[in-house]
Write a structure and sequence with these properties.
This protein is about 20% helix and about 25% strand. With about 60 residues, the protein is an alpha+beta fold. The protein has one domain. Strands 3-4-5 form a three-stranded antiparallel beta sheet, covered by helices on one side. A hairpin with a 5-residue loop joins β3 and β4. The longest helix has 14 residues. It is globular. The termini are far apart.
């Protein structure tokens, strides 16, 4: 799924870093170090939102 961030970055939404934000809500953080915008995906139905978070988590590099 392609998306555009407020900073002007365009790319796959799953490339964003999945995090647990304030209040324990899941979000995807913009990978641009100067931006860091959080996308909660609240505009998606719950099932689709969970699928995007799962794809983003699979795409993250393994931590050694």
């Amino acid at each position: 799924m392609l998306e555009s961030c407020y900073c002007g970055r365009t790319g796959e939404i799953e490339v964003r870093e999945p995090i647990v934000a304030d209040e324990g809500r899941r979000a995807l953080r913009c990978p641009d170090e100067d931006c860091g915008h959080l996308e909660y995906l609240e505009w998606l139905p719950e099932e689709a939102r969970q699928a995007v978070f799962e794809r983003a988590e699979r795409k993250q590099p393994a931590v050694a």
